[in-house]
Design brief:
It comes from Parascaris univalens. One of its GO terms (molecular function) is chromatin binding. The protein contains 15 helices and 21 strands. The protein has a six-stranded antiparallel β-sheet. Strand 10 and strand 11 form a beta hairpin. The longest helix is centred in the last third of the chain and has 24 residues.
C-alpha cells in the first residue's frame, strides 16, 4: 500500500481544506475515496500548521493508481515518469506565511478527482509537465479600475476573432469559439479573470505548452498589438498590454484547477456564465468539466495529432529554420515495424501526387534550396485500408531530432495518405526510433490526394500511360499555380482535376505492376541526382 509521503523528506499526510460533509452507509464506507483529513489551523508565528494523520487507503483506491506527496518538483516529476502515462502532477500551496511554497502530489487523474471533489476551499494547480502534448490555453485578465471604460463582451469578441484568425493563418484550422472554448471564471469586483481551454477540431494538441509560445502565442500577440484589438491597460495604467497573459507558457507551469482558489482567497474557478461549450449537453457533471479543463488531456495522447506551424501565409506550407519541434516521444502514425507492403516506387518528383511532391520539397527548402526527391515508395497495409508514401531526399539532411543536418546520413519523410500527416525520420543510428512531430497537410493538398474509393472507381479505358509519361506525373502541374492556390471555384476545379488524374495514374501503375527500380532509364536519372547532391558537411 502506498504511503502518502513515502519518498518525501518527511511524512506529509495532510492537505488544507475541509472535507465536504456527506452521508455514508455501510456499503459506501467500504469504498471511501480517502478517509477524512481534518485541517486544524493554528496561528503560531503566522504559520499555517495542520494536524498530521496516517491516511488509510482502500484496495479500490490503490487500484486507481499512486497517491504520493513530494516536497520537490523534480522528485514528483521523476515519480510521475515511473508510474506511466496515466499519472499526473498536481501542486498545492500549504502555508499563508510562505506564499508560493508548494507541495506536489503525484496521482492518476481518476484517483485525484475522487479525492479532490470532496475538498472545500481547495487551492490546487495542474502542473503542465515539460514536453507533454497540451491543449491550447489562455489566462485572460484585466483590472477594472485602470480599464473603467472597458466593455467585457467587446474585448472577448475581439480576442476570439484574433485567436480564430491566427489559428487559420498558422495551422489552417477554423474554430467556432463558442463550441471550442471551455471558459472558467474567477472574476472579482476589482479584476476580470478567466481561464480558457481550447478544444481544437480533430483533437489537435501542441507538442508542449512551451512550443505553444513561440509557434502560436507570439504570432497572436503581434496580431493583437498591430491591430489594436483586445488591448488593455496594466494594473497601474502605465502601459498597454494584451488581454491574455503571454507569460504563462513556461516549463512545468502551474495552472489553477477548476473549483480551486488562490491561497487565502475565495474566488474559485467556476464555469463562466458566458461559456457555450456545453450548450448541446442537457446535463453536465463537475467531473466532466474538470476533465475538459485539464491542459494535459486525461486520455492517452500517443496517437493524437501534434500540431506544428508550417505556414504564416496562405501559400505553400513551410517550416521555420529554427527547430520548433521539441524532443517529445511520440509514436509514428505508421510504425516502421508494421507490415506495410510496397506496391509502387519511382525516382524524382514522379509520384502520383505532384502537389504533395512539391509540398515536401518546399518544406525542406528552408534548409537547402537545392533539395530534391531522390526516390519515393508507395505502400499499404495488408488489409488495403491505409496507404503511405515515403520520400527519400537528395540535397538536404536536416533532422528535427538533432536540430541540424546530419553530416553523412540521409533523411526521409513519411506521409500518411489517410490521416493526412507527414513526419521526418532519418537513418542515423542515434536517431533510431525517433521522428519529428506530425505536420498536418493543408486543406488544398488533402483535396488533391485521391482516396482508395477514387482509385477503385478510376477508369483507365483510355489506355495505360507510357513509362516516359509516368515519370512526369499524372498531369503537368504549374508550380506557380500551386504556389498561388486560393480557395475559389477555379482553384478547387484545378485541384479536383489533379485528384482525378492522380487516381487514374496510380491505378494504371498498379495494373501494369511497374517496378521502376529495374528500369535502366530511371537508374540513370537516379545516378544524375546523386551526382548533383550537395554533400557538404554541416556542423
Amino acid at each position: 500500500m502506498d504511503a502518502t509521503a513515502s519518498t518525501s523528506d518527511e511524512n506529509i499526510d495532510w492537505f488544507y481544506g475541509a472535507k465536504k460533509e456527506e452521508k455514508r452507509d455501510d456499503r459506501q464506507g467500504k469504498c471511501t475515496a480517502i478517509d477524512e483529513i481534518n485541517d486544524q489551523k493554528m496561528s503560531t508565528s503566522n504559520h499555517l500548521l495542520s494536524e498530521k494523520k496516517r491516511t488509510r487507503f482502500s484496495l479500490f483506491e490503490e487500484s486507481l493508481g499512486c497517491f504520493n506527496v513530494f516536497k520537490r518538483q523534480r522528485d514528483a516529476l521523476a515519480r510521475m515518469n515511473e508510474e506511466g502515462p496515466h499519472s499526473r502532477v498536481f501542486s498545492f500551496e500549504h502555508s499563508l506565511s510562505n506564499s508560493g511554497q508548494r507541495r506536489y502530489l503525484v496521482s492518476t487523474v481518476e484517483r485525484f478527482w475522487r479525492w479532490y471533489e470532496k475538498r472545500e476551499d481547495a487551492s490546487f494547480y495542474e502542473l503542465i509537465a515539460n514536453g507533454c502534448p497540451s491543449r491550447l490555453y489562455f489566462d485572460v485578465e484585466f483590472y477594472r479600475e485602470s480599464n473603467n471604460d472597458a466593455v467585457e463582451s467587446e474585448l472577448i469578441a475581439a480576442f476570439n476573432h484574433c485567436v480564430r484568425e491566427t489559428l487559420n493563418e498558422v495551422f489552417h484550422i477554423d474554430i467556432d469559439p463558442d463550441k471550442a472554448m471551455l471558459v472558467l471564471d474567477a472574476s472579482t469586483k476589482t479584476k476580470f479573470s478567466e481561464h480558457i481551454i481550447v478544444h481544437l477540431p480533430g483533437r489537435y494538441l501542441f507538442p508542449s505548452n512551451v512550443s505553444m509560445k513561440k509557434s502560436f502565442i507570439d504570432i497572436l500577440e503581434a496580431r493583437m498589438r498591430d491591430s489594436g484589438r483586445a488591448i488593455v491597460w496594466n494594473r497601474d495604467a502605465t502601459k498597454k498590454i494584451t488581454l491574455c497573459d503571454t507569460a504563462v507558457y513556461t516549463r512545468n507551469r502551474n495552472f489553477r484547477l477548476y473549483l480551486s482558489s488562490k491561497m487565502g482567497k475565495n474566488n474559485p474557478l467556476v464555469l463562466s456564465k458566458r461559456c457555450r461549450f456545453y450548450k448541446e449537453s442537457s446535463k453536465i457533471s463537475n467531473k466532466q468539466i474538470f476533465l475538459d479543463s485539464l491542459v494535459i488531456p486525461a486520455y492517452n495522447v500517443r496517437n493524437e495529432a501534434i500540431l506544428e506551424p508550417l505556414s504564416v501565409d496562405n501559400t505553400i506550407v513551410e517550416c521555420s529554420r529554427e527547430a520548433l519541434v521539441l524532443n517529445i516521444k511520440v509514436e509514428p502514425l505508421s510504425n516502421e515495424g508494421s507490415n506495410f507492403i510496397e506496391y509502387l516506387s519511382g525516382y524524382g518528383s514522379s509520384s502520383p501526387f505532384p502537389i504533395l511532391d512539391y509540398h515536401i520539397i518546399s518544406i525542406n527548402r528552408r534548409w537547402r534550396d537545392g533539395v530534391s526527391i531522390r526516390m519515393w515508395k508507395l505502400s499499404k497495409d495488408p488489409a488495403g485500408r491505409s496507404r503511405r508514401i515515403t520520400y527519400y531526399l537528395a540535397g538536404c539532411r536536416y533532422c528535427f531530432n538533432i536540430g541540424r543536418e546530419h553530416r553523412s546520413n540521409h533523411v526521409y519523410w513519411v506521409v500518411d495518405l489517410e490521416r493526412f500527416y507527414c513526419f521526418q525520420k532519418c537513418f542515423d543510428v542515434d536517431c533510431r526510433g525517433t521522428s519529428s512531430n506530425y505536420f498536418p497537410l493543408p486543406c488544398f493538398i488533402r483535396a488533391s490526394i485521391p482516396t482508395l474509393k477514387d482509385i477503385d472507381e478510376a477508369s483507365v479505358s483510355e489506355g495505360i500511360p507510357s513509362l516516359k509519361s509516368m515519370q512526369c506525373g499524372p498531369t503537368s502541374v504549374d508550380v506557380k499555380t500551386i504556389e498561388s492556390v486560393e480557395h475559389d471555384e477555379q482553384s478547387e476545379s484545378e485541384i479536383a482535376t489533379v485528384r482525378r488524374k492522380s487516381a487514374v495514374f496510380e491505378k494504371a501503375l498498379m495494373l501494369k505492376n511497374i517496378d521502376s527500380f529495374y528500369d535502366e532509364d530511371l537508374d540513370e536519372q537516379l545516378l544524375r541526382l546523386q551526382g548533383n547532391e550537395d554533400i557538404e558537411n554541416t556542423n
